Give the backbone structure.
Amino acid sequence: MTIEPGPTSQPDLPQQPDPAGQPAPKKPKLALILISSVVVLLVIAAAAVVTMTQVSGQQRKESLQQLKDGQLTALVDSRAKLQPAANEYLAAYKKARNAPASQEEAGTNSRKERDEFQKAADEARSALQKVQSAHESREDGIGVAIGQLEDSYEGYIDHMEGLVESYPQFEGLFRADGAGCNGLFVGSKAANLRERQTLLSQAAAPCREAAGQLKQSKNVAYVEFARTFDNRVGQLESNAGITAKSEETYNEFVRLKDQLVQKTDEATARNASDEELLKIADEAKALNTRIKNNRSEFDFAAKRYLSGVKDMPVLVEEVFSKKIAAELKSYDAVIPLRVQILKDAVDVELVE
């Protein structure tokens, strides 16, 4: 028989520990857990940054090595093709003109060489763009070196393109189917100096117009020649005008001198007074002074005119023999130097 506990009975309860006798259990510290987690994350992130930095540094070195051995080498190779291609075109065009052939026919007959040159020029510009794209910054040593090389290399390409593009204009200056500047050399075609001035002015107009067009060339040698040539033609016109006027004035002086001689003879025949004779003598003296001054102006202008005509062929010849040759020599000195400076700048970065 089971005995149920009575209403007054109390169930057995677990004995409570004495708070004063035993330590209380430790509660989890959330802040410590969070801090520990953050530290772990930072360690992981730091390791990732180190890894990324190492990868980025390696990629940068590989990129610089490619700039030095790849893009820069291609740039040098493309430049080496440009001048021979230009020479091929110039020779082909000149040969066609001397066949003889018109400007249009010569252009057609030298089209192959012209296209080959343009291809070489396009490749040179493309090679330069790849060097520029290989390093974005223009503030560090490599960027500054690229900027300097870019200035020289673009100038060289412009020089060569201008040399080729403007050659038909330059070559045609003294041809009848071109600007017709041979008309400047009037020579014995004129009956007198005034007619010489007229013929010269007729030839000078299209000639100076052609020089104006040549001033727009991308080639500095052509531009400088065109400016000098234009000035020389202007001086020829000016000196031709002075000599023509002097010749006409001198003819007038001859007429005045004849009148004075006649006037003197008449005064002498009628026993004119000393005062009248002295007055005629003063007139003759003044006329002689004017004749001397006119002769001086004529001689000065005539010498400058003849010198201008004589020097014109030399001016034309020196465009290729001196001016263009000097520019090419300058580029040949500067560009390799700036290529080497860029290589040195890359080497400095590679060893760091």
In short: The radius of gyration is 47 Å. The chain has a mean pLDDT of 85. Residues 274-351 form the longest helix (78 residues).
